[in-house]
Design goal:
Strand content: 15-25%
Strand order of the largest sheet: 1-2-7-8-9-10-11
CATH class of the largest domain: Alpha Beta
Number of strands: 23
CATH topology of the largest domain: Metallo-beta-lactamase, Chain A
CATH superfamily of the largest domain: Ribonuclease Z/Hydroxyacylglutathione hydrolase-like
Radius of gyration: 25 Å
Bound molecules: MU-OXO-diiron
Shape: elongated
Helix content: 25-40%
Structural class: alpha/beta
Largest sheet: 7 strands, mixed
Low-confidence stretches: none
CATH architecture of the largest domain: 4-Layer Sandwich
Mean pLDDT: 96
Number of helices: 12
Length: 399
């Protein structure tokens, strides 16, 4: 049975073939659903659970880890279904199990299992539960990755369980960071994972890292990817998170202009809008992005890191075009609120693209600048002046 120490066994499920996680995340290197069993001298705790798809192998791993013992506790550090999918089945197998979760976690679990009678012990920051010769200490860690998240620390073993935090969608047969064969691939997966999961919660990442300061950790056991050791990736990953979560000090406003253009009409508007922005804010970083000419990750990053942005779309079949909606789908809705945005585009018949985009952006709580600039077919000299004026007035509104 794989183990961190003789008292802390690994009940994880490896899924090296997974290529898309939660519908949208690319997982080029697979993933793992990590979980653990802590065998105390008096009591036994399971730490985190697994995806329902892997119920049978997970239950087998748990049985193997427990031997003849029965678990007393199930600690749910975070309750997204990749970790909580097997909770209902675990309870059927071990009906006397007490679930340990945060206040928010307790609410989620009732809806995840559809059981109102769950035996849940709600814990708060600093609470402890004794397993005899081992202690479970809980550390509140909200929004890492959901409001329910917490860490669990075993001081006697110096093992920290962080669920999603500091993890990676990365899978190799060996379970520890010291055994990773493809270091660069692992580092890439840590970054992609951070961007997809924690980027919107950067202030909470910094708070979480602060809580780990001074904590003696020999192993950090996340719920995805290799277990981190103090001499290998634990410190690296904390440093990486610190760097990525720390806000960049920028002196220049970043105002990207995104567009698509079939016949060059919307593109010409984009160029003149950009000119208008620079007339009002000569120091601004203004980049025009043809959505068909750039990697999607670059576009998403430019949008989410902007101070304000503009979107230009023609109208085809009474709507904006798919690349534009793809871009809006990449908006980080947690951090985009009140972000100023302006819209422009050429059309042939009726020009519904812009009102549709405005509706979508308003529902995301962006501050949509008005009026939008709609131009019928080829922009005239007056239309190009109007585009420049849109850029100028939008930029001025940011002052
Ligand atoms: Fe791995 Fe947020 O769940």
């Amino acid at each position: 049975m794989p183990m961190i120490t003789p008292s802390v066994l690994i009940t994880s499920i490896l899924n090296p073939n997974m290529r898309i996680f939660d519908i949208v995340m690319r997982t080029e290197y697979g993933t793992s659903y990590n979980s653990y069993a802590v065998l105390g001298s008096e009591k036994v705790a399971l730490i985190d659970s697994s995806h329902l798809k892997f119920l049978e192998p997970y239950l087998q791993n748990v049985e193997k880890a427990l031997g003849k013992r029965t678990p007393d506790y199930l600690v749910m550090n975070h309750n997204e279904p990749d970790h909580s999918g097997t909770v209902a089945a675990l309870l059927e197998r071990y009906p006397s199990l007490t679930i340990i979760a945060s206040q928010a976690g307790a609410i989620y679990l009732k809806n995840i299992t559809n059981r109102a009678d769950l035996n849940i012990m709600k814990v708060h920051d600093g609470d402890e539960v004794s397993l005899g010769d081992k202690t479970l200490r809980f550390i509140n860690a909200p929004f890492l990755h959901w409001p329910d998240s917490m860490f669990t620390y075993i001081p006697e073993e110096k093992i920290l369980f962080t669920c999603d935090f500091l993890g990676a969608h990365y899978c190799e047969p060996q379970l520890f960071d010291t055994c990773v064969s493809y270091r660069e691939a692992y580092a890439n997966s840590v970054k992609e994972y951070y961007d997809a999961i924690f980027h919107p919660f950067a202030p909470y990442v910094l708070k979480g890292l602060e809580k780990l300061e001074g904590l003696e950790v020999s192993w950090c056991a996340p719920s995805h990817g290799p277990i981190l050791t103090d001499t290998c990736e634990y410190e690296h990953n904390r440093e990486r998170y610190r760097k990525w979560a720390t806000p960049l000090k920028r002196t220049r406003r970043r105002i990207p202009v995104f567009y698509v253009s079939a016949y060059g009409n919307t593109e010409r508007l984009a160029t003149h809008v950009a000119r208008g922005i620079l007339a009002a804010l000569p120091d601004a970083e203004v980049t025009c992005y043809d959505l068909n000419q750039h990697d999607f990750a670059v576009l998403a990053s430019a949008l989410n890191d902007s101070d304000a942005f503009l979107v230009g779309s023609p109208t085809i079949n009474r709507d904006a075009l798919p690349p534009v909606f793809n871009l809006l789908a990449a908006i980080d809705a947690v951090t985009i609120a009140k972000r100023p945005v302006a819209l422009f585009g050429s059309y042939g018949w009726s020009g519904e693209a812009l009102p549709h985009l405005a509706e979508r952006l308003t529902s995301l709580k962006c501050a949509v600048f008005g009026p939008q600039l709609k131009v019928c077919f080829t922009p005239s000299a007056a239309d190009l002046v109007a585009a420049e004026e849109l850029g100028r007035s939008f930029a001025t509104s940011l002052l």
